[in-house]
Design goal:
291 residues; Rossmann fold; Glutamyl-tRNA Synthetase, domain 3; 2 domains; 3-stranded antiparallel β-sheet; globular; binds glutamic acid
Length: 291
């Protein structure tokens, strides 16, 4: 039997809250139950928003909770060269293109399209798809703009990528927390349009780094929040075009705040540090999240 490998992969861009605690503790519980490994991955590619201070606090909160993970911890910001090599492959295979439009230009394009009575597609988060113009730019013009230091991001040509994959894609999703049964979910990467896979200064994005690392670290089970459910379609497509072995997924319930909304890192009252300072124990946290 292959070894089960779970991971908890937070971004140190704010304080951990009850939602993170649930995710971390559920991964721990499932790894223990299956005699598997638990990895901790620091997803800190956003070097402006992720800070050493947040990371130190995060590790302290997780230690206090009694998480326990294998060392060394993989810190994504230390692996940019590795992501760049993968990005170079996607560039060579013409599955990504440089996208130059500013937010203002995108907004203007969409307003103009919608004024003419055409709905413009939006992704599952409500963000409009990227307009098609840059995909058609001649190579010479792309090179000219990049050489001239024009700001841009590398976007996945989702149509080309799906054609390259050459088949309908699906992923294996567990039906509940016991991980005893699975079903197949159709991957719908096209719902997201041409997503960003890398920036000019940072040779990766959340989606690219996550699929590369899950494969590299031999993650067999991705257990994470329901809020990432439909993004899994994009990740499944990236795995396919990069020839990476896909893990199985379980997207767990979200811990909601008193207002019934998803917790955010700025909501102090449900922050783990605030709870600890108010006298809560790790067992209180487990009970609160239902574990
Ligand atoms: N780093 C992501 C976050 O903090 C989670 C990534 C994942 O679990 O795939 O939301």
């Amino acid at each position: 039997m292959t070894l089960l490998t779970f991971r908890f992969a937070p971004s140190p861009n704010g304080e951990l809250h009850l939602g993170h605690a649930y995710s971390a503790l559920l991964n721990q519980k499932l790894a223990k139950a299956g005699g598997g490994r638990l990895l901790l991955r620091v997803e800190d590619i956003d070097t402006a928003r992720c800070t050493p201070r947040f990371e130190a606090d995060m590790l302290a909160d997780l230690t206090w909770l009694g998480l326990g993970w294998e060392e060394p911890v993989r810190r994504q910001s230390e692996h940019f060269a590795g992501y760049e090599a993968v990005l170079d492959r996607l560039i060579r295979e013409e599955l990504v293109y440089p996208a130059f439009m500013s937010r203002g230009e995108i907004r203007a394009f969409i307003a103009d399209t919608e004024k003419r009575g055409r709905d413009w597609p939006r992704d599952p988060d409500g963000v409009p798809h990227y307009p098609p113009a840059d995909k058609a730019l001649p190579v010479k013009e792309r090179k000219r703009r990049i050489a001239g230091n024009a700001p841009f991001a590398w976007r996945l040509d989702v149509t080309a990528a799906m054609a390259h994959a050459g088949k309908d894609l699906a992923w294996t999703e567990f039906t509940d927390e016991t991980l005893s049964a699975t079903h197949l979910v159709e991957a719908r990467p096209q719902d997201w349009g041409d997503v960003i896979v890398a920036r000019r200064d940072i040779p990766t994005s959340y989606h690219l780094a996550v699929v590369v690392d899950d494969a590299l670290q031999g993650v067999s089970h991705v257990v994470r929040g329901q809020d990432l459910f439909s993004a899994t379609g994009v990740q499944r497509l990236l795995q396919e075009i990069l020839g990476l072995q896909p893990p199985a997924y379980f997207h767990h319930r979200l811990i909601l705040g008193p207002d019934g909304r998803k917790l955010s890192k700025s909501l102090r009252a449900t922050g783990l540090a605030a709870l600890r300072d108010a006298g809560a124990s790790p067992d209180d946290v487990r009970r609160t999240v239902g574990l």
